[in-house]
Amino acid sequence: MKTRIITGVIAALLFVPFVIYGGTPLTILMYVIAAIGLFEMLKMRKLSLFSVPGLLSLIALFAMLMPAHWEKYVLDATSFSKLEWLIMMTALLLIYVVLKKNQFTFDDVGFLLVSIFYVGVGFYYFTATREATDGLLYIVFALVVVWSTDSGAYFVGRKLGKHKLWPEISPKKTVEGFVGGIVIAVIAVTIFELISGLDVNWAVLLIVTVVASIIGQLGDLVESAIKRHYGVKDSGNILPGHGGILDRFDSLLFVLPLLHFLHFVG
User: Fold this and answer.
1) In 168-219, at which residue ranges do the beta strands (DSSP E only) sit?
2) pTM for the complete prediction?
3) Closest by alpha carbon to 219, among 132, 142, 134?
4) Half-sphere exposure of 63 (CA within 13 A, CB side)
5) pLDDT at position 246
6) What CA–CA distance (Å, rounded) separates 231 from 135?
7) 3-state DSSP helix/strand/coil percent for the chain, to nearest 5?
8) What's the 3-state SS for 15-33?
9) Which residues touch 244 (CB under 8 Å, ≥6 apart)?
10) Which residues contact 146 (CB under 8 A, 6 or more apart)?
11) DSSP state for residue 166 in the 8-state scheme
12) Are 227 and 44 in contact, with CB atoms under 8 Å apart?
C-alpha cells in the first residue's frame, strides 16, 4: 500500500501540470502514454513493438491520436489524411502476413488493429476533451467519476459484497460494489458541481454520471478480460504498486469517448 501511495503521488505531481497547461505538451504526453499502452498490449500477446508489425501499428496509433488542428499540417506535408494513414498501415500489416507466410497471422493483424483503436481512441479523446470549451472541468469531471466509482465499488464491495458480478473475469468484483460505485459517483459529482459551478442541467449531469460510472466499470472489466485471456496479472510494471498504463487508464479509455458520443462535452 505504501508503494502504491508513493507512486500515485509522484505520478499525479508529474501528470497534473500537463493536464492543467494543456496544448501541445499534453498532446505529446498522450502520444508517449499511448505508445506505452500499445507496448503493453503487444507484450501480452508476445509481439514486439520494435518489429515491422509493431512499428506499423505505432504509426497507425500516432495517426489516430492526431488532434484535429494537426491534420492540416500532416496533409500538407505528406498528402495523406489521417484516415489514409490508417488505411495504409492496415494494408501493410495484411501484406506482411503474406510475406511472412502466415508466421505472422491474420489473427495477429486483428489483434493489432483492435489494440490500436482500444488505446488510440481513449487517449485521442483525452486531448480532445482538454481542448474543448471548459475542457479542464470536463477532464476533472471524468476523473471524479472514475476515481469515486473505483473507490465506492471497492469499499462497498468489501463491506456489503455477496453476489459476484463476473467471477470468470474479475472474481473480487460484486454486484453490490458495482451499484455502490454508481451511488458514490453521483454523490461525488454533486459535490464537484457545487464547487466547480459546471454549467450543466442537473438532470443531464445525473444521467451522464450514472452512464459514465457504468461504462467506466465495464471498461475496467474489459481490461481484466484481456489480462485473464493472456494470463497476466498486470498490463505492465511501469507504475509500482499500480501495474501498467492500461491498468490505470482502463476506465478513462471508455469514459472520455462516451462524454463526446453523448454530446456532453461541447
Assistant:
1) 170-174
2) 0.93
3) 142
4) 22
5) 96
6) 38
7) 75, 5, 20
8) HHHHHHHCHHHHHHHHHHH
9) 36, 37, 40, 234, 235, 236, 237, 238
10) 216, 251, 252, 255
11) E
12) yes
Integer Cα distance of 201 and 81 in angstroms? 38
Cα(203)–Cα(207) distance, integer angstroms? 6
- What are the cell numbers at 195? 464547487
First vs last Cα of the chain: how many Å apart?
39
How high is the mean pLDDT of the chain?
Answer: 94
Cβ–Cβ under 8 Å, residues 165 and 126:
no
The candidate with the shortest Cα–Cα distance to 37, out of 196, 186, 250, is: 250
Which residues lie across from 164 on neighbouring strands?
Answer: 174
> Which grid coordinates are listed for 169?
473475469
The cell numbers describing 79, all together, are 498528402
User: For the chain, what's the residue count?
Assistant: 266
Grid cell for residue 75: 496533409
pLDDT digits (tens, 9 = 90+) for 207-265: 999 999 999 999 999 999 999 999 999 999 898 888 999 999 999 999 999 999 999 99
**Distance, CA of 84 to CA of 76 (rounded, Å):** 13
User: Rounded to whole angstroms, how far apart are CA atoms 231 and 92?
Assistant: 29
Q: Are the C-beta atoms of residues 96 and 56 closer than 8 Å to each other? A: yes
